[in-house]
């Protein structure tokens, strides 16, 4: 302490002799030292901030991987849902583009591809099914409630856009099975009306066709086409079918049983015929890839599981041969084609009556 006082006294004495320049130099040194220390502190603080930001950014980039490691099932559902929304929005835009084209051309389907007609037929149903879920998910915190629900009930709450490949196969088979169950009631209705045709020239031929189906065989397509006049008037024209017959036809074609039943059945027949015409425009069934063949069989009521490409091509060729003979007045024949052409097909039969 005495040494510091002595040093300070000496500096003051020298400073008086030199006119105060020593004190000024001393203060300048202190300022330089403080500035240097502040510069070091700022540099170190900046390094720390940069390090923290970089670490945080790396954490954010890998956040989905962290969640996937901790919650694999939930993240899988989340990814499927997000990808499904993208696919659904893509198809929705495509659907409205098709609607605009049809409105401009007075509903001329000749310019559309088979895939576009299939989309035009399917999307309204998918939009009605998915719209409540998408609207609900936009509410605050609703997504956290929604995610477990769509995980537990994907078939009931979501469309095929949101399903995995395994779910598409599984749910598609279940939906087709529900449709095929109505084949038998439709066939019984056809049999019931046979007695009213005793005076018709095609009575015996039609009886043979129904007899083949009843005995476990499928009639050939030419035999079915020969019976076309029966479906242009009473009792098999759409206007003459009984209420119960119409209900089973609707369910067989995966249509709801609400309003305008016969009109919607006629529209279904029209779209099926337009799809078949589009297939011919695109080169025929022989030029279709396997997945397209499977989808076409599914839409028309044939279970494509375990069928070879050749079997699907043969069946679709017969189907298109039949639809080529159908006109607006005989749409009922086209609507009954799943029963007339594939009632006893093994792949359908196994689906309805699985081996024990």
From TrEMBL:
<dbReference type="InterPro" id="IPR033122">
    <property type="entry name" value="LETM1-like_RBD"/>
</dbReference>
<keyword id="KW-0812">Transmembrane</keyword>
<dbReference type="Pfam" id="PF07766">
    <property type="entry name" value="LETM1_RBD"/>
</dbReference>
<keyword id="KW-0496">Mitochondrion</keyword>
<dbReference type="GO" id="GO:0030003">
    <property type="term" value="P:intracellular monoatomic cation homeostasis"/>
</dbReference>
<dbReference type="GO" id="GO:0043022">
    <property type="term" value="F:ribosome binding"/>
</dbReference>
<keyword id="KW-1133">Transmembrane helix</keyword>
<feature type="domain" description="Letm1 RBD">
    <location>
        <begin position="174"/>
        <end position="356"/>
    </location>
</feature>
<dbReference type="InterPro" id="IPR044202">
    <property type="entry name" value="LETM1/MDM38-like"/>
</dbReference>
<keyword id="KW-0472">Membrane</keyword>
<feature type="transmembrane region" description="Helical">
    <location>
        <begin position="133"/>
        <end position="153"/>
    </location>
</feature>
<protein>
    <recommendedName>
        <fullName>Letm1 RBD domain-containing protein</fullName>
    </recommendedName>
</protein>
<keyword id="KW-0999">Mitochondrion inner membrane</keyword>
<dbReference type="GO" id="GO:0005743">
    <property type="term" value="C:mitochondrial inner membrane"/>
</dbReference>
């Amino acid at each position: 302490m005495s040494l510091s006082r002595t040093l300070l006294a000496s500096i003051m004495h020298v400073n008086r002799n030199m006119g105060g320049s020593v004190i000024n130099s001393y203060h300048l040194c202190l300022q330089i030292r403080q500035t240097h220390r502040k510069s070091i502190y700022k540099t170190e603080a900046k390094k720390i901030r940069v390090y923290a930001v970089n670490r945080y950014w790396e954490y954010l980039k890998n956040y989905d991987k962290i969640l996937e490691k901790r919650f694999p099932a939930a993240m899988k559902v989340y990814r499927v849902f997000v990808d499904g929304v993208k696919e659904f929005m893509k198809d929705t835009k495509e659907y409205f583009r098709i609607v605009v084209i049809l409105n401009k051309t007075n509903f001329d389907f000749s310019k559309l591809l088979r895939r576009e007609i299939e989309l035009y037929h399917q999307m309204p149903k998918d939009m009605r099914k998915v719209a409540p879920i998408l609207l609900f998910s936009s509410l605050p915190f609703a997504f956290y409630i929604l995610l477990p629900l769509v995980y537990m009930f994907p078939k009931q709450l979501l469309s095929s856009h949101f399903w995995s490949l395994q779910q598409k196969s599984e749910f598609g088979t279940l939906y087709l099975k529900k449709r095929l169950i109505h084949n038998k009631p439709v066939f019984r209705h056809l049999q019931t009306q046979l007695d009213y045709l005793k005076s018709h020239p095609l009575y015996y031929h039609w009886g043979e066709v129904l007899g083949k189906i009843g005995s476990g065989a499928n009639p050939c397509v030419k035999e079915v086409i020969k019976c076309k006049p029966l479906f242009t008037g009473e009792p098999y024209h759409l206007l003459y079918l009984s209420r119960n017959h119409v209900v089973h036809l609707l369910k067989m074609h995966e249509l709801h049983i609400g309003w305008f039943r016969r009109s919607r059945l006629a529209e279904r027949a029209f779209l099926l015929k337009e799809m078949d015409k589009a297939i011919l425009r695109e080169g025929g069934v022989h030029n279709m890839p396997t997945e397209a063949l499977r989808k076409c069989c599914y839409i028309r009521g044939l279970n494509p599981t375990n069928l070879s490409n050749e079997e699907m091509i043969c069946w679709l060729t017969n189907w298109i041969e039949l639809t080529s003979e159908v006109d607006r007045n005989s749409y009922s024949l086209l609507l009954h084609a799943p029963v007339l052409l594939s009632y006893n097909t093994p792949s359908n039969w196994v689906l309805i009556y699985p081996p024990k």
